[in-house]
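Supplementary Note 3. Input sequence used for the single-chain structure prediction.
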Amino acid sequence: MKHSIIRRLFFLALAVGLPFVGSAQYTNEKDTSYANGYYVKRVQYFQSLPVQKRPIVFLGNSITEVGQWQDVTGMKNVINRGISGDNSFGVFYRLDDILVQRPRKIFIAIGVNDIKRGTPVEVIARNYERIIRKVQKEQPKTQLYLQSVLPVTESVLADIYNNIRNNRIMVLNALMKDLCVKYRVTYVDLYNNVFKDENGQLFRSLTTDGLHLQPEAYVLWANYLKKQKYL
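The predicted structure, written as discrete structure tokens, is reproduced below.
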């Protein structure tokens, strides 16, 4: 799988005009930068909550955490497991706490913080694969939905987000989609079908800072999931 990801990445990088940087040049494939004080406290908080029976889980970073998922979906069995600053390593690390609840569905949205920290997209894709394999092995009845990384509005992003560009996100989303085909997992294309404007950017009216979302964006998000019968 590693070599197929690298070949796919090479051609995708050429297609969107990115230089190809293989993971051989990347030395932090066991990134623990997600495990800051907030992450630890948030995990401890989740662990203190009653175990739900067969919940629908929204799992991800700050974009997920901010969402009022029960409100926008109208479903009481939905739980929010977003942690601001989390990345694909952090999601994989805390999967056990999710899977012990034998979730009916898991909606994962992760990856933009990996890009922010300079993690190569093929490394992020391998983490997606680890997540898929773990869920399918330990909870084969759980329906897994990999949601695309959302576009950003590049013109208003702060300097701390300089690594986050839509061409990198597109490459990552293409690799994610390939994995979904391989493992028969549902790929949710929010990038193209909900949040991308005519210039390939995140709709300016839907974002607070070019990356994070306004409340009304979550209504559009939930409505799309319902329209596609994912919820």
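The CA atoms of residues 12 and 171 lie 6 Å apart. The chain has one domain: 2-227.
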